[in-house]
TrEMBL record:
Organism the protein comes from: Acrocarpospora macrocephala
One Pfam family, short name: Methyltransf_25
Protein's recorded name: Methyltransferase
GO molecular function: methyltransferase activity
InterPro entries attached to this UniProt entry: Methyltransf_25, SAM-dependent_MTases_sf
A GO BP annotation: methylation
Keywords: Methyltransferase, S-adenosyl-L-methionine, Transferase
CDD domains: AdoMet_MTases
Gene3D superfamilies: Vaccinia Virus protein VP39 (3.40.50.150)
Residues covered by the Methyltransferase domain: 40-136
Length: 253
C-alpha cells in the first residue's frame, strides 16, 4: 500500500461529511455543463462527490466511472452511491495518473475535483488526454499556489529550520501555469473560473497536525513551535482556512 493510499484510507470515513467538499465538487460539475448521455471518468474520485453530481447531470443514459487508489475512499463512495439511488455510476480502484485499465478515447469527459495537488500534473494530464475522445472535455479544480495560508506558513517554517518543502500547486495553481500545462499535454483551455472556497477556521494546533500528517510534507518537528507562534498572528482572521481556487475547463485538441 502506497503512502497516499494509506493516508486517504484513514481519511475516508469523514471525508464526505465536510460541506465545503460537497459544494466544491458540485461547483465543478455545474461549470462543466456536462451534456446529457456523456461517458464520464471521475479521476481521484475519493468518496464520489463529483461522480454523484455528474451522474445527476448526465442522466440515466450516461455513465460515470469513478477511480481512486484508496480502497477506503471507494468503500465510502459505494455507501453514498447506495443512498443516492443512482444507477449510472460504477467505481474502480485505479491510479488516476496512469489509467492503464482503460482504452484510448474511452470517455467524453474527465473530471478531477480537488485532487490535483496530490497528483503528478504531467502524468495525470497525459493519462487524461489518452482516455478522452477527440474534442473531449477535461474539467478540474485547483487550489491557487500559496494557499491555504496555514499550509504556506508550514512550508515557510520548515524552510526556516532547513527543510525546503515545495508547493504542491506550483504546476497548476495559477491561470498561466494551468494554461501552459494543459497546452503542453495537448489540451485547449476554454475558460478558467476563479473562486474562493470558504472553510471554517481551525485552531493552530489542529492545523499543525493536519500539515504534519500530510503525505506531501516531510516530518519537521523542529518547526512546530515556530509554526504555532506564526499562526497565533492569524487567531482573529476568520478567513485563515479559505482556499482561493481555479476551475479549469479544457478540450482535447
Amino acid at each position: 500500500m502506497g503512502l497516499n493510499e494509506s493516508y486517504f484510507d484513514q481519511r475516508a470515513s469523514t471525508y464526505g461529511d465536510l460541506s465545503w467538499h460537497v459544494g466544491y465538487a458540485e461547483r465543478l460539475v455545474e461549470l462543466a455543463e456536462l451534456p446529457p448521455g456523456s461517458s464520464v471518468l471521475d479521476a481521484a474520485t475519493g468518496t464520489g462527490l463529483a461522480a454523484l453530481a455528474a451522474a445527476r447531470a448526465i442522466g440515466p443514459v450516461g455513465e460515470v466511472v469513478g477511480v481512486d487508489i484508496s480502497a477506503g475512499m471507494l468503500r465510502e463512495a459505494e455507501v453514498l452511491l447506495a443512498k443516492s439511488g443512482l444507477g449510472n455510476i460504477r467505481y474502480q480502484k485505479a491510479d488516476a495518473t496512469a489509467l492503464v485499465e482503460f482504452s484510448p478515447e474511452s470517455f467524453d469527459v474527465v473530471l478531477c475535483s480537488s485532487s490535483v495537488l496530490y497528483l503528478d500534473a504531467g502524468r495525470a494530464l497525459a493519462a487524461w488526454h489518452r482516455v478522452l475522445k477527440p474534442g473531449g472535455m477535461l474539467a478540474y479544480s485547483a487550489m491557487r499556489a500559496g494557499f491555504p495560508v496555514s499550509s504556506r506558513v508550514f512550508r515557510e517554517c520548515a524552510a526556516e529550520v532547513g527543510v525546503p518543502v515545495a508547493d504542491p500547486m506550483a504546476a497548476l495553481g495559477s491561470e498561466r501555469a494551468s494554461r501552459d500545462a494543459c497546452e503542453k499535454a495537448g489540451f485547449r483551455v476554454d475558460r478558467i473560473v476563479s473562486d474562493v472556497v470558504r472553510r471554517p477556521p481551525l485552531p493552530a494546533a489542529e492545523l499543525w497536525r493536519s500539515n504534519a500528517r500530510n503525505p506531501l510534507n516531510p516530518e519537521v518537528p523542529a518547526a512546530e513551535a515556530r509554526y504555532l507562534a506564526r499562526m497565533a498572528e492569524f487567531a482573529d482572521d476568520p478567513s485563515i482556512c479559505d482556499m482561493p481556487v481555479l476551475f479549469v475547463i479544457a478540450r482535447k485538441k
